[in-house]
């Protein structure tokens, strides 16, 4: 019987590289008949971390089913934006996703462009309470909706104007790709596999991890320049459909 192993991210960067799991992870990779990784970034990280021969690992990108992620999905009526610009963030709200940066960046963009905006936070995790508290400190609680765990992710993304992903690490950035498939421009960090999904300034916007002001400036430009917004949206949708469709 042949064995195929697929590497997705934290199985290598967090769990697999931990001293208690390192040897078994390395063994599993070496004895498998085929090993795939979801990005060049993850492939190279694995080769470096475990001293694996480069020809042992083959890159196969993630893909998205357009039946569930597309720009024509019905809008989420119970979250009617009422003319507001909608920024959305979806994650497990753990430190690696920098969810507190989401609050800061949204606050900065809203203050700079002086338009009615709303932030939708989808998901649950250990930093949820800290996000709620920070939104209160910045006096933007009325502009932030903490939606929790949802199953209709495609409809939420299609209802938003921008997807924000300020992660410290991303092996690929599946949520970013799902947003692009829904025609929702992405602002994300220049980490891991995200630059393989997003061409900065063409199919989305990238900024350096932790650089909140850079994200605010680029996000503000996206919302203030209609032609730039339309180009990013259409290019992102086209790239996602051509390169990452099933």
SS-based class: alpha/beta
Look at the structure and give the mean pLDDT. 91
Helix content: 40-55%
Reading the helices and strands in chain order gives EHHEHEEHEHEHEHEHEHH
Report the uncertain regions: none
- Distance between the terminal alpha carbons, to the nearest Å? 27 Å
The proportion of strand residues reads 15-25%
SS field, number of helical segments: 10
Please give the number of β-strands.
9
* Radius of gyration over all CA atoms, rounded: 19 Å
Largest beta-sheet characterization: 6 strands, parallel
Oligomer: single chain
Choose one word for the global shape: globular
List keywords for this structure.
246 residues; three-stranded parallel sheet; alpha/beta; 9 strands
Give the topology, please.
Layout: E1 4-7, H1 10-13, H2 22-31, E2 34-37, H3 40-50, E3 57-59, E4 85-90, H4 99-113, E5 117-122, H5 128-137, E6 144-148, H6 153-159, E7 162-165, H7 174-181, E8 186-189, H8 194-197, E9 205-207, H9 212-224, H10 226-243
Account of the protein in words:
The chain has 246 residues and is α/β, with parallel strands linked by helices. The chain contains ten helices and nine strands. It has helices at residues 10-13, 22-31, 40-50, 99-113, 128-137, 153-159, 174-181, 194-197, 212-224, 226-243, and strands spanning 4-7, 34-37, 57-59, 85-90, 117-122, 144-148, 162-165, 186-189, 205-207. The strands form two sheets. The protein has a six-stranded parallel sheet with strand order 6-5-4-7-8-9, with helices on both faces. Strands 1-2-3 form a three-stranded parallel sheet. The mean pLDDT is 91.
